[in-house]
Amino acid sequence: LDPQRMIAYASEAPDPRFSFMKxxxxxxxxxxxxxxxxxxxxxxxxxxxxxxxxxxxxxRFVQSDPEMALELAASVPVGQARRGLNYSGIYESLAQRDLxxxxxxxxxxxxxxxxxxxxxxxxxxxxxxxPEAALEFVDSLPGFEARAVGRDAVLVKLIDTxxxxxxxxxxxxxxxxxxxxxxxxxxxxAASAEPDEARxxxxxxxxxxxxxxxxxxxxxxxxxxxxxxxxxxLDELGWDLRDPGSAxxxxxxxxxxxxxxxxxxxxxxxxxxxxELAKSDPQTALRYAFQIETSHWSDPLGDIARRYxxxxxxxxxxxxxxxxxxxxxxxxxxxxxx
Length: 338
Hints:
Elements: H1 3-12, H2 20-37, H3 39-46, H4 51-59, H5 66-73, H6 78-84, H7 87-97, H8 99-108, H9 112-129, H10 131-139, H11 144-161, H12 163-171, H13 177-193, H14 195-203, H15 208-222, H16 227-237, E1 249-253, E2 256-259, H17 261-278, H18 282-289, H19 300-311, H20 313-321, H21 327-337
Antiparallel strand pairs: 1-2
């Protein structure tokens, strides 16, 4: 590998088949490789190149020499640094070397967005070592957004390492999207390990919103491996995405009901589940598809009905004949007729 020769060739005679974007990516890749072989020379040469190339060189030092990366990052305008520098990675590497010192440096950062990125890197390390201390550090961050994002980052990490410890902390959060997303993540992890225990736990949650979020997580966990069990879990919830008063929605906002993050998750995961279930049990899949709201981009009932009719027209006709009058029978009848 000779990145210098590669850079020289690309700079003097770029292949006309390359778009400018690909040419720029080629330079970034070459300088990044050069930085691994001869850091000092790559840094000097990159000073004459675009900011994107300079940042590609800086990002090569994130793991090996975060102090060097941070020193070089000081020359990059803040707006560009937010988008192109792996600030989170730099501070994660610093925290792995000296957690307390890295935390102090985070608090000294003036730009709020860069501080948020840096805090994320420190918290990824701190949450594994001492979640309670990590949450105390989060409370010291200036600004509501930084504290909220930092808290969620710690709890997401805690869900991976200690679900029992994460549950009371998540339950203590105020109702809202953040709590619902964390509850969904917790349930998803639990169901991946022990689906029956997860369902029993979700059924016992007092808050309807928490229950909905938990069942969404369970359904997501089981969607690919056991769609039948995933739908059975949703049946326990009493879900129906066509019904605005079902468990997948919560209190009105403005003039109409507002979907919770869990409700939106149920809609998307249910679409993938019926498609999976239809491969082995199209009749059951059709019954569930009837409960899923049709939108301009998704028609699960129609999709499954068309496939069923094309693959087994006699079976589809017999199934339709045994149904009561309603939209499901009408949809099958239309597909059979066409």
